[in-house]
Design goal:
Layout (H helix, E strand, L loop, with lengths): L1 H57 L5 E5 L13 H6 L4 H17 L6 E2 L3 H7 L8 H15 L3 E4 L7 E4 L12 H8 L6 E5 L1 H4 L8 H15 L25 H6 L3 H13 L3 E8 L12 E8 L8 H13 L17 H6 L1
Antiparallel strand pairs: 1-5, 2-4, 3-4, 6-7
Amino acid sequence: MHTNTAASSSATEKVVDEVGEAIHEVDAEAIAKAEEQAILLAQALEYSKALAVVVDGSVGARKAVPIRNSFVRNDDPAKDTPLKKLVTGRGGRGAAVPVMLYVALIWKCAKKPFSVTLSARQWAGLLGLPDAAGNGARRIANALQTLKDHNLIKLDKAHGEVSTITLLDESGDGSDYGLPSTAYSKSGLKRDLYFKVSSRLWTSGKFQQLSAPGLAMLLILQEEGGHKPSRSPFEVFRAIPQGSEVWFTTENFPTRYGISASMRSRGTKELIEARLLETTRRPVGPPGTLMSFTTEKLRKVYTLQGEAVVVDKETEAKRGKTLAKKPALKAKPSANKEGKQPLTKLAKK
């Protein structure tokens, strides 16, 4: 009996060892694949940033992408906005590609006839998609078809040649595209109101790394005016630009944008982690009352920052001059309780 038990124990240990070795091999293989993927993503991002600099230089003085509010917002709750159609129903990076591509197309097509002929591989490179010539190009082809299906672009395909892409109006109604600034100055129509996406989001690589929820919340906050620099008199003293404060009521957010609470939460978290957003909670007092001693209602205030803020040249110049005049703090020599020199000085010796 004892011999059988010992044999059984030995066999069990052998099986455990074999399973452990197999798991170790699988883990090592998974780690190697993850490391390889991380390297490819990093390389794709660096290439993307370099291409973004080229695009930024090719569009002249245009340092921000103008996008009509209708792409993001619709005050008729019965109608879905193009943004909602693009980011819902498909998860993660797949839903982000058509949104990024459409913004990139508006950025590149800065003048009539608002069309461009570039290969899917080139667009994949700009968006930071790995394997730009292979899987990246296929994802761009799918995204172009998605944009066409939503009446945001026209595609003129020629056999064996690169398709010509022509912009259509951001509302998705199929009408011809025109610069919103020009259209609004002529007609003053509400449909031509627009917001801006800073090209610094592209050249820094932050825009390309956002998922669908992050992109959705970024564009929504910019449409609400969050891309405009803060009007605080202290703005020129800040090293990092701060945008205008934005807040919503629980009723108007889903009505205007149709984005779920879950996507709103995930997108907000992603923007905070990317250092593009700060959030705070502020008390809401009765109208006309500066101070009260009653039960407080709090509202969430969103403040875009850094590359998400569109800063004009004048404000940027003032900030640069102010920060240049700011005296540098002198570091005091440190010593421990025994009066010995700090380790940094000893290391130099």
